[in-house]
Amino acid sequence: MPRMSRRTLLRTMAAAGTAISVPGLLTACSTASDDGDTTNAGKKLAAWPAYTASSAAKPDLAPTDAGVQPGYTSYPADLTTSVSRTPGDGSTIRVMSVTFGTPPKGRSQNQYWRAVEKALGVRIEFTVIPTDDYQKKMATVMAGDPDSLPDIINMFSGFVLPREAQFVQRRAEDLTPYLSGEAVQDYPNLAGVPTHAWRDMGRIGGRLYGIPLERPLPGSTLWLNQGLFTDAGMREGWTADDFAAVAKKATHGKTYALGAATGSDFGNAVHAAAHNAPTGWAVDKAGVFHPNFTDERYKAAVAYQAQLRKNGSYHPDAASMSTADLGTLFLNGTVGSMQNGFGSYQTLYPDAKGLLTPTPALPYSPNGTPGGVVAARRSFGYTILKKAKKERIQLLLRVLDHLAAPFGSKEWELVHYGLEGTHFTRGKDGSPRLTKLGEVENVTNLPFRYLAEGPQVLFVPGRPEAVRAVYAWQQKVVPVAIRDASYGLQSTTYTTQGTTLKALMDDTITAVVAGRSPMSAYDDAVRRWRSQGGDRMAEEYAKEHAANA
Questions:
Q1: For residue 94, what is the enclosing H or E element?
Q2: SS3 for 185-214, per residue?
Q3: pTM for this predicted structure
Q4: What torsion, rounded to 10 degrees, do the Cα atoms 187, 192, 197, 201 define?
Q5: Residues 149, 170: contact at Cβ < 8 Å?
Q6: What is the CATH number of the domain that holds 273?
Q7: Domain range spanning residue 336?
Q8: Best label site of 186, 292, 457, 469, fewest CB within 10 Å?
Q9: Helix (H) or strand (E) holding 152
Q10: In a domain, 208, yes or no
Q11: pLDDT of 2 higher than 60
């Protein structure tokens, strides 16, 4: 039976921009007796960095202003140079980042590590934190001696860190003088980071403290085994009833149409969006914030999922299955679908070659109304800098500017593929093909990409048909993507209690869909969620929204 290796799984999750697991809330620790005012309400707001689009490589498939990504069906033949000089001065830089990979080989045995160092002109001391350890490690870092902080820290958006904004405001360099407005032009690749990424990162106390890692508009996506679903009657423009009928027909013997992993609420994000429920929070014309949990459409999605489970369409272990096992069962055909980030296409298509054809699902229509899809936060976390003298901050920004090189540049190729002839060779179409060494020494295991990265594009080496497929899908779903109105806004209650409150609802939704609790338990949980902080979050987000308008 084909198996999905842990290396394959981890690089898939890295490409998707998805956390593998979500540990419980840690004890919140303040950085001082006075947490400070991190809200933007009443503050003078720093201008977003002035955007300048990259001209590194013209795409084969044009992007749209609405959010469809540029597509490249072939690798650029002539790579450009995006930086004018080596950014470093030979000094040592300490960096820390989350990782979805396996522990990298040490610097002295790692040619990829040394090659990137040479290009940057600095020596890198790199601390990588596995996702499972991220919250615990960050709690220690945030509570520790500020002088011991790394120079560059990746603040990963996959978890809620208690009092994160307060920590950043106190311990990180205010980058407003360096990046706000036209100032960013001193760092051309950082100027190429689209404004939507800065907006979804947000300000703290009206100031810019980080550099966002830009991500595509589509978020959580239902990936289907195209052959299985087509044979069962899948069609464009299907209704909720059609989806249920196809899922039931595709389930037979030891094959189940729907797979899910622990923590996904049976893939609730996709179904809630198809029912046109808010993704997190919606804001009305009066500026009032409304949570998804109190929306009748969201409740209808939970009830719909409960019926899918009752019909037998879900794998029996959908409430307890690990992400690793779900990926394996999808590739070997045991389950016909799985929810994952849209970015997982980058590894999903190559990994599924010879096994099945993956395809992102189009939303079904409940009650005759076309369904929506999840719009992701356009910032996969952000990077902060330890407070330092002006000259040191400028050096660190030059290093990050180099790492933020666009697709089609020599700098991008080095960071993403390493050295030609050592870490990759070229296929007949000129696109990089990893060597055995490149499968070990790479940007997944040593994640420079989570310090800074250029705008995302659609590209799969040697797979132009995959690029065309996901580009065509984006054209159809981007207009119906549902965005969380809270992205980029500050809420003290969310920072301190968000994980606990989310766990309350996640546990209840899972229990209802699994058939362990009645639908009335959902209503009870919503009342508790509101009284324990949900209503306060709505008020805080409304004030922030008004301030950012």
A1: strand 92-99
A2: HHCHHHHCCCHHHHHHHCCECCECCCEEEE
A3: 0.91
A4: 0
A5: no
A6: 3.40.190.10
A7: 219-374+481-548
A8: 186
A9: strand 152-155
A10: yes
A11: no
